[in-house]
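ENTRY TYPE: paired fold submission
RECORD: A
CONTENT: sequence, then structure tokens
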Amino acid sequence: MDIFRNPNFVKLFFAALASQMGTTIGNMAFAFYLLEHFSNQPYYATLAELMYSLPTIFVFFIVGVVADKFDRKKVAENCDWVRAGLTVLLFGSLFIHSVPLIFFILFLRSAVTKFFFPAENSLVQGILKKEQYAQAAGLNQILFSLFMVFGVGLGALAYKTVGIHGAVVVDFISFVASGLLIRACKIPKHARLPNGNVSWKEISISGAAKDFKEGILYIYRNKLLASLIFGFFVFGFVSGGFAILPMFTMKYKYSPDNYELYASFFAIALGVGLIAGSAIAAYLSGKVKTYKLMVFPIFIASTLVFVLGFTDTLSIYLAAVFLLGICIGPVNVAIGGWMPKIVHPRLMGRVSGWIDPMMMFAQSLTLGAIALLFPKIVVSIDYLYYGMGMIILAVSIFYAMTLPKLSRTAAAQESSSGPLRKKKSEINSAL
């Protein structure tokens, strides 16, 4: 593929791979660590997941501004160095067995991570051609799918072989490798600083509030973009459920003694399905309207989630998970290829900075609710699956009612105004 002839993209791609590895392996290892040492207190594992999503609420209003105002390459690189340092502190805190301190460091490390992906995502947009956006989205989806396949298994393997301390060391090495790869990139200034040089002295609370408002207005005035962002928010509820429910399902329903192994089977089934779904989406992307790659798979996914709660047979459960992955793949590819086409590069950081907060806020609410409700009030995991199925079904109906009209309107505006006038109008509307 031509996209891999771009050395900057190759380095950023593998930097994202290393960064994701540093996040996934440690997170999974901690989940197994807490489930083993506090098996009668499952809310500990839920709280650990909450430490990965909750920080978004505290930093979301400056994440996008930082990605747009400062050197995006330095922002992404420095995120890796800071996370590496926090991982060293995490390694030391494990020896004193202080769960509150461990949670606090996980919280800080996750807060820093929130700055990495908007900056890295904006860099990718700046170094690729418009026709390569869908390819990049497909590759990122495959990368995510690979971690779905191997992430839980690698976390379980690391925990069983080198222990929680060894898993933390893997985290440290991954963050350092990501930082070195980003430093090696030779990215032009217009991609790193699309808004020109800005110093810390020029940043103020009022200025940050103005930039924050600018991002909100840009999304609000672009109805298609607003619909996609709303979808991310709703998907956050589902993401929160799937962050912890598979492990709970295996431990408390299917295999209490071998839940690590069967949780890995869940990840493999979902990941392989995502890869297959991404391949199908790549084949259909030029033949099918983008919104159709979202509406129909989301509707089918809602029925499959109901199956997850209804069945008591592990083979049927895993088969439904595989089919669910096939449905999610096209949705992620469609959104990932659509977003860069409708967002001006000057505002990509602020728009990207809204996606994670919306998802993480919803995810935090879900994890908090699970920690409070299960197993004291909601004694059956099945009802949690039914709730997620209803949410996904509602999203499919919403998109079926809105996306066809909005996509036609966006296409008509682009063909009538031309790309240059369209870019100018986007800037003016945002301002």
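RECORD: B
CONTENT: sequence, then structure tokens
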Amino acid sequence: MNLIYDEMALTDLEDVPGPDLLKVITAAYRNPTYLSGAATTVVAEADGQVVGVAFGYPGEREEIVDDVMADLTAQSAAFDEPYEAESETSAGEWYLDSLAVDPNYQGHGIGRQLLQALPYYARRDRQAVIGLNVDRENPGAFRLYDRMGYQVTGTQMIGDHVYDHMQLEIGKPISVMN
């Protein structure tokens, strides 16, 4: 996941030493909110280790999820001020915030398998659309999302990069019995 933060080149994080940023990111992904609270973390394993991860949540929970990083960065001496994430999701979608595959396992279908698992979690969270942002400087990721049926619905600046916002219609949410 640290690779994603590096690639995004967020100016608010550029002065934070790598080990300190990694410590905060690790704490966030161990937080109950990230694991199965307001958000969902899905992992792919191979050879007894985690080789891929997908992280997402219903768009209306974005602030709850962003508060985790804000709280963790507020507690870290490495940050001059709490990190405030930019809004990235659209209303009415389950937002795939992050997808990362260990470089040693890229090209082995791990990303595709993680993407195939996401409709279950989106429907469980009563969403019929999955949305994501893909950096225009990452054409390989764009091709993967395009092949999986995601369509560009707009563009967005995040940090200093232009992203295509893409969505996939997945059908009716799972009904929950009361």
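NOTES ON RECORD B: The domain at 2-169 is CATH 3.40.630.30 (Aminopeptidase). Confidence is low (pLDDT under 50) at residues 1-11.
STATUS: closed
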